[in-house]
Design goal:
Number of domains: 1
Strand content: 35-45%
Structural class: alpha+beta
Distance between the termini: 30 Å
Radius of gyration: 14 Å
Largest sheet: 8 strands, antiparallel
Length: 133
């Protein structure tokens, strides 16, 4: 089990070190779009997991790999649509494609797997979309 994450949340406003994976997951599960809108967890210099939002039960989930090369992914429903949705992140509204706004109840188990293994894996109902940086 991976228990040496660094974590920043907008609820605390500080970075914590040596955080267990289940503590990060608990913070993600508490995103509400009001007082808790951002969880950024990093494992060494290897990977970052960022989960943001929480309003209307939807979140944006991003995964970044730094080794062997930079790769950035966004978790999506896989649906193609021009419809946009807004998420509240750190007090401001940000607009994203609706397919990038994942129900929190689907994101939490997937994030638990990611935090335990440090691998984004291949989720069954959702998919990782590579994002050009």
């Amino acid at each position: 089990m991976l228990n040496d994450w660094r974590m920043y949340t907008d609820a605390s406003g500080t970075e914590q070190k040596h955080v267990a994976w289940h503590e990060v997951l608990r913070e993600i599960a508490q995103l509400d779009g009001v007082n808790r809108t951002l969880v950024h967890a990093a494992y060494g210099d290897h990977v970052d997991l960022v989960v943001a939002g929480g309003n209307k039960g939807k979140v944006l989930v991003q995964w970044k790999e730094h080794e062997p090369g930079e790769q950035h992914f966004v978790l999506t429903t896989g649906e193609q649509s021009a419809v946009m949705a807004s998420l509240v992140i750190e007090g401001g509204e940000a607009v994203f494609p609706l397919s990038w706004c994942i129900p929190l109840e689907k994101a939490v188990p997937l994030c638990g797997d990611v935090l335990r293994t440090c691998d984004k894996g291949e989720p069954q109902e959702l998919q990782w979309l590579p994002v050009e940086m």
